[in-house]
TrEMBL record:
<keyword id="KW-1003">Cell membrane</keyword>
<keyword id="KW-1133">Transmembrane helix</keyword>
<dbReference type="GO" id="GO:0005886">
    <property type="term" value="C:plasma membrane"/>
</dbReference>
<dbReference type="InterPro" id="IPR036259">
    <property type="entry name" value="MFS_trans_sf"/>
</dbReference>
<keyword id="KW-0812">Transmembrane</keyword>
<protein>
    <submittedName>
        <fullName>MFS transporter</fullName>
    </submittedName>
</protein>
<keyword id="KW-0472">Membrane</keyword>
<feature type="transmembrane region" description="Helical">
    <location>
        <begin position="25"/>
        <end position="43"/>
    </location>
</feature>
<keyword id="KW-0997">Cell inner membrane</keyword>
Length: 60
C-alpha cells in the first residue's frame, strides 16, 4: 500500500548510496517479493469457486 510506496524508495536509495551498487537493492526487492508470496499463500489459503444456489421460483 501507501507505506511501501514511501519506504521502498527511501530504503533503496539508502542501500545504493551506502554500497554504491544496485545489487543490495535488488536483493531487498527479491526478499520482499518472497515475503509477499509466502504471506499470500498463508493468509489467503485455498481459493474455491463460489457456487450460487438458485432462488425459489426463478428460472435458470
Amino acid at each position: 500500500g501507501n507505506i511501501s510506496g514511501i519506504v521502498t524508495p527511501i530504503a533503496i536509495g539508502y542501500i545504493v548510496g551506502t554500497t554504491g551498487s544496485f545489487n543490495g537493492a535488488l536483493i531487498y526487492v527479491g526478499v520482499h517479493a518472497l515475503v509477499a508470496i509466502i504471506s499470500y499463500l498463508v493468509l489467503v489459503g485455498d481459493i474455491k469457486r463460489i457456487e450460487l444456489k438458485p432462488v425459489a421460483g426463478q428460472l435458470s
